[in-house]
Amino acid sequence: MAKALRTALDVVQAESGSILLADPVSQQLIFRHSIGESPVKTGTAIPWDEGIAGSVFQSGVPLVVRDVKHDPRHSPAIDELTAHTTHDMIAIALKRWEGEPIGVLEVLNKREGLLDDDDVAILSIVSAITASSIEQARLHQEAKLAEVVRLLGDVSHDIKNLLMPVVVGAQLMECELKDLLGDALKRGDKQAKESFERCNEVVGMVENSLRRIQDRVKEIADCVKGLSTPPEFAPCQLDKVIIEVTDTLKWWSDQKGISIHTSGLGRTPLIVADERRLFNALYNLINNAIPEVPPGGTITVSAKEEPIGVGLHVTVEDTGKGMPPEIRDSLFTLAVKSSKRDGTGLGTKIVKDVVDAHHGKITVESELGVGTTFHIYLPLRPPGTSPR
Prior knowledge:
With 388 residues, the chain is of the alpha+beta class.
């Protein structure tokens, strides 16, 4: 796409330009590439029915605007954001020769003279080729993702089969221990009672881990497909979810010499939420943080009611390496990058999908050499829901 945009600017001798792609879920046009002295940050979004770009996307008809500041369709927000002044522009829908638009190509400020209909004719060819290339890339990606989803289904089935003997064995062990300690338990033997309780805890932990693993594989499959089953909202105690996540990951953090702390628990109200999804979101954030924190460092998970009676503010703060600005700024956009070798950014997408499903908001602060803090804001009750 970057090469196509550069070609478009070269053939019409324009100073700057952008490619915006449509996101049907949010109904926005997302800036994917921008070239010029003041490029628009990748991931910046605008409503797909507003501004000159929105008008072109909705109609599919190219627009030549020779005096942008006097055009009533022009929204100055992007110019203000980039400290850029647009004089003249062409906006043309990205679509194949036949078909619905998938985005918009914008070119701004012809170097000599003004952009005109002759430039539109040239850009129509460039935009059609660009749109066709994007569609071909998408089809190829969808084919690969379909295979990944199939494999994930096989993996999920195999995991269940592999772990089932462990679950059955733990349950048998519980029964055997109960038979062996039956008399001692009846007599009220303290040591026997403690042994039996520890056995029950192990069985419960194994059964819970099996369920969480199955949930996690399903969540990854949904994320890869770009789909998600409807949230299962019900009254939920967030403190319980946080404790389950930190307990699950404690063995790994201990191995790495990292401490996981919690703060503010015990004072948060019930919320209406999908407990399974919240577990997966918090698990991803903490799990991703552990390898980034040096030995002796900490990860702190806190929760508080904020604003009172409206929502919860959850933070996951670490004393790790921090992220460079280009990684931090793309984290919750379509252009998400991973700072890890062979990373896909999938974990971050899962977190964002969960927060969006709850009509919440997530932001991140990060500084290299200092650490990273994620802020999650969840409503006590998402719009249109009621406790069951």
